[in-house]
Specification:
Shape: globular
Structural class: alpha+beta
Distance between the termini: 78 Å
Largest sheet: 10 strands, antiparallel
Number of strands: 30
Length: about 625
């Protein structure tokens, strides 16, 4: 007998393996990730983001742990022979949030969140619900069987039964894994649906919207890697991920780390592809607008163990493309739309319908056309085509080599080595990437949050960082706090480099007007003139300072401005012992961001207090 359907079990087929793992053992619940034991499969709910201090609607979904008492590996054919193939009927099908309400939520998020600088993208979900006839465990095993025979390219194909609920799916995306200290993450964004053609794939790979969305996700996961890997993540790819009904683009991030795997799980909750960015504020936005819990949607399964040498291992796929079935046969298939600056309510409503239909087909719960059946049965890999390969390589042409190459051999800049820098995080963990770049340049760097105790004495440089929010809202506690920090540094003459939000606050203190841009620069790469030096840089901004000339006279001396002559947007400024950048030099979109930092800091840290920075 393959499994006892009345007892907890998990069946897993992981990418690159020709066998199905059969895990059995008791299921219990724990409160925190720290309490997750070794040698278990953990079902981590979205509400666990509370461990990071992030907002969520707490729906009580448990952090369940299947403690593995028995583990077997069986050939796929043997498992298929033992799995049922029973008819599955759905009734009472529909979305929990209707089209009109969902369109209204999308419109509100676009106007009030992205339009006001709260982030670059947000994922808002809705749930396709239905009732399954017959035994829900048998239905889930049937779906698993169909996935094994019809799907390809999944990172995990799985069915997990806890006794209270059953999860079954084929997720394309590794969230995070750890093996012998190697931490890996796998951001996926961009979707080409249906049976792909070479022409269609080439058009898809050249689509600016798809390129930008993957770059934004890449930046957000690099922020996480900056926390859990000692030198941050090195970017590998992009790659084409070909599944039976879909084609995606993806990157792989890899870095060495020494954290406990449970810490890695906690610090990477959860993938920007299903939450948004920046993560902390995205969680607030989700809670404000979804107004209900997510269950396991967007969270992870986590296989925790040790290898033959006793070293910790972790393999955690994202819980998407997954059906959640309760013991009464109620089926839930959550799907989300990623809202970005060019989204439309009607388009995102259609996206959720398309995704739900695709997920149901992928799960074997919907009708399968002859074309789809043929596509699933073939093993044509367009990724091997030379033109497709060239198109993938071309995507990296304007990205930052700093993140694309190994950094363990990079030498510090002698002019900066040994200096001490304090970086202030204003709720955007781009600061983690800044810390890595500053350390590579040779600075000893400390990171603190804006709402903690901040002592700037003893540091050669302070970097007030980026964050979401409207810099004109001085009644906002975070804005007021960050403005006070920047004002104190400005008045003291302490060397300061202000980034994005903090640059806007610095500009306002210097007397520059701030305005909301008609079209936000969220995840946008632009060519700018940086004080006579051409630079290709990445913006994540909704607001900008403006001025109609290259120099501003201020009580703190003359300030030189790098600006766009077409609209007077101020991209950067520099004066006596301070500088500000509207763009993100740490972003993967800033092609020579590390060089921009090096040049600015060399001037800032060599100039004595009170001297002009020319």
């Amino acid at each position: 007998m393959l499994i006892d359907p009345k007892a907890p079990f998990a069946l897993l087929r992981r990418e690159g393996r020709d066998a199905v793992e059969v895990l059995t053992g008791p299921v219990s619940t724990v409160d925190t990730l720290a309490a997750v034991p070794d040698d278990c499969l953990a079902l981590v709910p979205f509400r666990q983001v509370r461990e990071r201090g992030f907002d969520c609607v707490d729906d009580g979904t448990p952090l369940s742990v299947l403690r593995i008492e028995r583990r077997r590996e069986l050939a796929v054919d043997d498992v298929l022979a033992a799995l049922p193939e029973t008819p599955i009927e759905l009734s009472g099908a529909g979305f929990d949030v209707d089209d009109e309400e969902y369109a209204s939520i999308v419109d509100t998020v676009l106007r009030e969140e992205i339009g006001r600088g709260e982030g670059s993208n947000f994922v808002i979900h809705r749930v396709f619900e239905a009732d399954l006839g017959g035994d829900p465990v048998a239905a889930a095993l049937t779906v698993f069987r169909r996935l094994l025979t019809r799907e390809r390219g999944a990172y995990w194909t799985f069915v997990v039964h806890t006794g209270e609920r059953t999860l079954v799916g084929a997720t394309p995306e590794r969230h995070v894994s750890v093996n012998d200290g190697l931490v890996m993450m796998n951001p996926i964004s961009g979707t080409l649906r249906g049976a792909p053609t070479k022409a269609g794939v080439l058009e898809f790979l050249a689509d600016r919207k798809e390129i930008d969305e993957l770059s934004m996700v890449l930046d957000e996961e690099l922020k996480m890697m900056a926390t859990v890997a000692d030198l941050g993540g090195q970017v590998l790819g992009p790659y084409l991920k070909e599944m039976a009904h879909l084609v995606h683009t993806e990157y792989l991030l890899a870095g060495r780390g020494s954290r406990d795997v449970r810490d890695v799980l906690r610090e990477t909750m959860f993938a920007p592809t299903v939450v948004g960015s920046p993560i902390e504020n995205a969680c607030r936005v989700i809670a404000r607008h979804e107004r209900r819990g997510r269950g396991y949607y967007g969270a992870v399964l986590a296989l925790v163990g040790r290898d033959a040498r006793g070293r910790q291992t972790l393999d955690a796929p994202i819980l998407i493309r997954t059906a959640d079935i309760d013991r009464d046969g109620r089926l839930r298939v959550p799907v989300g739309a990623t809202l970005v600056r060019h989204s439309t309510p009607a388009g995102e409503v259609l996206e959720t319908h398309t995704k739900a239909a695709a997920v149901l087909r992928a799960l074997g719960l919907g009708p399968q056309t002859t074309t789809e059946a043929a596509a699933a049965a073939t093993d044509v890999r367009l990724a091997a085509d030379p033109e497709v390969q060239a198109a993938l390589v071309a995507r990296n042409a304007t990205l930052a080599p700093f993140w694309l190459r190994p950094r363990d051999g990079l030498a510090a800049d002698p002019a900066l080595a040994g200096r001490r820098a304090l970086v202030v995080d204003a709720e955007d963990t781009f600061t983690g990437m800044l810390v890595h770049q500053l350390r590579v340049l040779g600075l000893s760097t400390t990171l603190v949050r804006y709402d903690g105790d901040i002592e700037t004495d003893g540091f050669d440089l302070v970097v007030p960082g980026p964050g979401p929010g409207d810099p004109r809202r001085l009644d906002d506690p975070k804005i007021a706090r960050m403005r006070g920090i920047v004002a104190g540094l400005l008045d003291s003459g302490a060397p300061m480099l202000a980034i994005c939000l903090s640059h806007q606050l610095l500009a306002g203190l210097l007397g520059l007007p701030l305005r909301r841009k008609a079209s936000p620069y969220q995840g946008m790469q632009r060519d700018v003139d940086l004080f006579g030096r051409p630079a290709k840089v990445g913006f994540y901004s909704t607001f900008t300072a403006t001025h109609d000339g290259p120099v501003l006279d201020t009580p703190h001396g003359p300030v030189e401005l790098a600006r766009d002559p077409a609209n007077d947007d101020v991209h950067a400024l520099r004066g006596r012992t301070f500088a500000g950048l509207q763009f993100h030099p740490e972003s993967v979109l800033s092609q020579d961001g590390i060089g921009v930092l090096r040049d600015l800091l060399a001037v800032l840290l060599d100039a004595p207090v009170g001297s002009a920075s020319q």
